[in-house]
Amino acid sequence: MERTLVLCKPDAVQRGLVGQILTRFEQKGLKLVGMKLRQFPKELLEQHYSDHKERPFFPSLVGFMGSGPVVAMALEGIDAIAVVRGLMGKTNAREAAPGTIRGDLGMSFSNNLVHGSDSAESAAKELALFFPGADELVDWTPCTLEWSYSVG
Ligand code: UDP
Ligand code: MG
């Protein structure tokens, strides 16, 4: 099992798409193990996107992510990191495939609705950043587990 961080970005919250986005992850079979809504401080967002700090879009990205509330989620499942990235679609929503979150719901490169961790290392860093408290992530067993995942 893997855990990954998903953010519903400010455009998703403003457009009332959080429920639809969460539904896609739930229906796929990913387990929600943590969730919060916050307007996150600039310093945290700069740390979150620190890999991009030399890129020209970094200031506008951090500004956008701090411009309104964000819903942060921790999702768990087999290969959760890659599964979430697949459901999100390509970064530029105009190029994202139909059927993906960005492909179905967005038209922007920057305001592309969702973030998902891109590796095990990023997931560990990002989950610790957005869910620092020891009790913020919950271990539980969905009654559908055996039906959602085949054995092996
Ligand atoms: N972004 C942007 N312009 C670019 C590249 C990225 O505004 O040219 C924004 C976009 O919101 C993207 C985020 O920066 O989601 C992080 O970029 P990354 O390449 O990590 O894309 P992601 O992992 O989100 O698909
Ligand atoms: Mg990324």
TrEMBL record:
Binding site for ATP: K9, F57, R85, T91, R102, N112
Location of the active site: H115 (pros-phosphohistidine intermediate)
GO biological process terms on file: CTP biosynthetic process; GTP biosynthetic process; UTP biosynthetic process
Compartments where found: Cytoplasm
Cellular component GO terms, alphabetical: cytoplasm
EC number: 2.7.4.6
Cofactor: Mg(2+)
InterPro entries, sorted: NDK-like_dom (IPR034907), NDK-like_dom_sf (IPR036850), Nucleoside_diP_kinase (IPR001564)
Matching NCBIfam families: PRK00668.1
Known role: Major role in the synthesis of nucleoside triphosphates other than ATP. The ATP gamma phosphate is transferred to the NDP beta phosphate via a ping-pong mechanism, using a phosphorylated active-site intermediate.
Family to which the UniProt record says this protein belongs: Belongs to the NDK family.
Protein name: Nucleoside diphosphate kinase
Annotated source species: Engelhardtia mirabilis
Gene that encodes it: ndk
